[in-house]
Prior knowledge:
Helices cover 4% and strands 34% of the residues.
Amino acid sequence: MRPTDLVITPRGLRFLGRYIPCSGGRGGIRSDKAEGDGATPRGTHRIVGMLYRPDRMRRPADWAVPIRPGDLWSDDPKDPDYNLMVRTPHGYSHERLHRADPLYDLVILTDWNWPYAKKGRGSAIFIHRWRKPGHPTEGCIAMAPQNLLWLAPRIRHTTRLIVR
Length: 164
């Protein structure tokens, strides 16, 4: 492990010598992740992107990509674009990235089941802000918005998310 890795520990997410309180999936940590199980997948995951709402914040890193109205993430195993960012209109099940609430104002993307998704293995695992402290996610990693804003400019494409 490297100091620049994001490591999930019982104390929280460890990064650059700091521990950041975070929450994971309601289904716990699993090695056999499946779509809809609410679990956070065990393993070492690369950071592959960062999305942000330019109408709500400044660009958090020079490689961050804006979330636009109509941006979605496909979570339907029947979709040929399963586990990819798509646009409206979209005839398959999806998550709206441009949300009314601030949950996805800043999203760090991992390579879970990406770029060549295996149907039903589970769609994207994001790092995003939490709904409230300690509230579980559908499998993502969530944290307080101020911690996410601190983290975002410090990570690189070489940063990994390690979930044991």
